[in-house]
Each structure stands twice: as C-alpha cells, then as structure tokens.
Amino acid sequence: MNISLQQVSATEVSTPLLAIGIFEDTLAGAGDAAAVDAQLGGVIGQLVADKEVTGKQNELTVIHTHGKIPAQRVCIVGLGKQANFTTDTVRQAAAVVAKRAGEKHITQYATVLLGLDQAGVAPEEIACAIVEGALLGLYKYERFKKPNDEEGAKVGSLTIVCPKNSGVADAARRGIGRGEVLSGATNLARDLSNGPPNLVTPAYLAETAQSVAQRLGLGCEVFDVDELRRRKMGAILAVGAGSVHPPCLVVMRYQGAPSSDKVFAAVGKGITFDSGGLDIKPGDSMLTMKHDMSGAAAVIGFVQAVAELKLPVNVMGLICAAENMLSENAYRPSDIITTYNGKTIEIGSTDAEGRLVLADGLAYAVEQKASVIVDLATLTGACIVALGTIASGVLGNNDSLLSQVEKAAQETGERVWRLPLWKEYGEQMKSEIADLKNVGGRWGGAITAAYFLQQFVGDVPWVHVDIAGTAYISPADQPYYPKDRPYLSHGATGVGVRLLADVVKQWAGVK
Question: Which of 6, 127, 174, 473 is found 20 to 30 A from 441 (Cα to Cα)?
C-alpha cells in the first residue's frame, strides 16, 4: 500500500473516503469532527442527537457529503472514552476503517490523525498506530489462491491528513515510516506461519533468514545437521531425527552498536510441523500445527524490523528449526538425550519437543555472551488453559526485563500476563536417571515448561514468552477476535515482532 502524508485541513482533502474520530464523551464537539460537521450543515451533530452515532470504540458510520466538502464520504469512527484512549485505540480504529474501505472496494482513502492532542499520545505514535492498524488489518495470506476478479479492486493508497504544523508533520512522517517497517516485519512472520508445512520446512526458514540478512547486510549462519552433530546439539537433532526435512539452527546478527559488547538475544521455537512424534497428537489437534514455528517466524521478523529501523543496538536472533515427525529414526519416550550445555534429559513425551530445541538455542545464546535473552514459543496448551487466546504468558528470572516486556505489551496491544516461576515447580521436572525430564505432569504445565528452559540460561537475564494462545487464530477462536483486535484475522497473528521491537528499544534506551 502507498502511504503518504498531506498537510491540509480535514475539510479540504479530496478523497473517496475520509475517516474522522469522535469520543463518547465529546462526540462531534471538537477538532476535525466539529470542522467537518460545520461544513456538512450539522449532519453529524444530528446523528449524535438521534443516537445513531455514539462514539463507542470501533463503531463505524459512513455518510455521503453530497459535494459539501471535497471528500466524497466521511467515515465516523468511535474512539471510546477519552480517559481510555491509547495507541491501541488508534490501531483498532484504523483497522476497522481500512477493512470498511476494502469491503466497499474503495482503492484509496484518507484519515486524520485520530485522537490528536490527547494527553500521553504523541503524533508520531498516532501515525505509527494508524499505519499498523491499516496494514495489519488488511493482511491476507493468498499465495496459493488464484486472483478473483469478482472480489473487486483492493485498497492501494492511504493518505494521512496532518495539520499545517511542521512539528506535527515531521513526527507523523517518522511514525509512518516506523509503522510500515513494523507492519511489514509482522506480516512477514504471518506469511511464514501461515505457509503450508510442505513449503515452510526448516530449510525454508533458514533460506528466509538468509534472504533477509543478505538484503539488509546482516550476519547469518546456518548450522546444518553435520554442524549440529559437531557442536553436540543433541536436543535439536533428536527432535528432527524422524523427519526427511533436516533440522537446523539459524543465527542472525545485527550490529547496530559496534562499539558496545551488549547483545540482545531473541530465541524462537521453529517446529515447522508438530505431529507430536511417537506420542502422536489427535487428528484435530494437528490442524493448526503448521503454526508451531510462530516463535521462530517472529524472531526473523523482529531482526528485520530492528535492522530496517537502524536501531543502535546489537541483536542476535536464533531460529531453532525442526519438524517433529514419526519414522524409524524418530526419538522415543524414555530416550535420554544430551543438550548443548551438557545437561541430560529423560524424554517423557515426544510432544514436548519445543522446549528441547529451545534448550540448545538458549545454551548457545549464553555461550555467545548474550546480555539478555527473550524466547518466543508456542510452547504449552497449559498456557491456553490458563490465559485463553487473549494474552501470552511471561515468566523469567529478571524483574526489570519482565517489566519491560509488560510495558511493551501495553504499547503494542500484544497483551501478556506474568506467571510465577518459584523453585518448587522444579520438583516436577526431576528425573531419577537424568538431569531433567522434559515433562512435569498435568499441573502448572506452562510454569514447569518455563522452569525447564530456565536451566539453560544460567544467570543471564531472561524472559520466556509463551505464545501458544496468541500466535494464531483458529476457526474456533475466530468469533472472539474481531471485536477485540480488528487488526487481526484468521490464521497467524505475527505476535512478538512488535512486542520485541518495543522491548529492545526500552532495553537500549532508544527514544
């Protein structure tokens, strides 16, 4: 989509559709809405008086202007109550407007800076959120669909209308650029996660990472099976042993602060398809298992975003990629495997494979002297039981880093909820014949899985983000999401890309 900025009054912009925002508690009484209403002869005020327009969050009303202003239509979008206004209010409003434009086959539209001058939300953040809402909201995975002329033209152009104020305009331009980068990186992650598993194999993840690295001048290493064996990364090798698609570990490096020895490491679970292995999943449970590499997809998108934003920080992205399948070579329940840092693991379930590939990746990040580590993984069904599909679970060993993740969640709308990681949970992971078991029983499964991961990070500040419930929207979950997150759609959400981008900015002290 082509996105541009135009410094002009809302009553002067020429467009097929102009979006303006109103709050529940001010309605058409101020700002762009009041100016447009005056030019339209008070029609918006009448709709408010008739309670056809209420200003409730994401409510849409489209009216024709009959030539009274250059815009052919005005789309009135509700922003809710002023006291509850956040960047995610804008992101949601922008998404519902973009979707309405798409439904009506309007190829170009405009929007004012929704909620401009609200305390606590800067013009740059508003512009960024508008772009994110539009680009994320219009996203569709259609690689394998033939073009359908009956669907009509698609939205191709968005103009953000800005007051004739150079300071606001400069800030809005920065926001537009950042929004395009973050949305593009998020949609890359969605493409990878939505891709069919016969396309998106461990090798495909590696090739995608290499392509991103080559385009942006990043470092990228791929540890193939021979290299994994040489390095004794027994956990990744075990999980991938049953597949014809060999496992690999991909290491992406961005050096945005070459004079610093501090490194932010992001580690992603990249199980490109999870059959459950010999502890095979029921058929229905396999239908969404192409998404089990969403953590790795988010890491690739995150590294791309950091590089495109040219953030002054050093980042290492690790993609722990394998396909968990059944064959005569597959690893078994009761096997004992040895991980990269030398710890031994008794296999209690071959369907608890994500924590195994992460174990080698986390240990490698520690060896590479990562300053902090955040891992992203569709790790446990237990996390979905605890938090549903609304929030990711977060656990870790460092309160400051956990707080940064929680703050980033508020900014990005990618909600998280902190779970405890008390040492007592570790009792469930003890083995009589190895250093650890890879499963700890039914109770507290999201926590015991995180405890397992903690054994591979040592004293390095670390946060685990369990995205099992938030990485994708299944058909069963679909009814719950459009109301709450209109910038999401059925399939992969790309969760984690924008979250990590905000975390790394906080960690590096980037404004």
Answer: 473
Structural domain includes residue 190: no
pLDDT single digits (tens) 132-176: 999 999 999 999 988 876 676 789 999 999 988 778 999 999 999
Least confident of 157-171, 454-468, 481-495: 481-495
Is 199 found in the same domain as 180? no
Q: Is 100 a catalytic residue?
A: no
User: Which residue, of 162, 184, 206, is where some domain finishes?
Assistant: 184
Among the options 173, 232, 253, 281, which is catalytic?
281
Distant-in-sequence contacts of 255-259, Cβ < 8 A, 24+ apart = 255/219, 255/314, 256/306, 256/307, 256/310, 256/311, 256/312, 256/313, 256/314, 256/315, 257/312, 257/313, 257/314, 257/508, 258/314
Which domain, by its residues, includes 123? Answer: 2-184
**pLDDT tens-digit map of 377-436:** 999 999 999 999 999 999 999 999 999 999 999 999 999 999 999 999 999 999 999 999
- How far from 51 is each of 44, 54, 175, 464, CA to CA, in Å? 10, 6, 34, 47
Burial of 307 (0-12, 13-18, 19+ CB in 10 A): buried
Catalytic residue among 355, 437, 485, 505: 355
Q: Under a CB-based contact definition with an 8 Å cutoff, are residues 71 and 13 in contact?
A: yes
Tokens representing residue 15 in the block? 């467009």
Residues in a beta bridge with 60: 77
User: Pairing between strand 248-255 and 219-223?
Assistant: antiparallel
Q: Is 343 a catalytic residue?
A: no
CA distance 100 to 158: 13
Q: Residue 436 pairs with which residues in a beta bridge?
A: 345
> How many domains are there within the chain?
2
- The whole-angstrom separation of Cα 63 and Cα 75 is 7
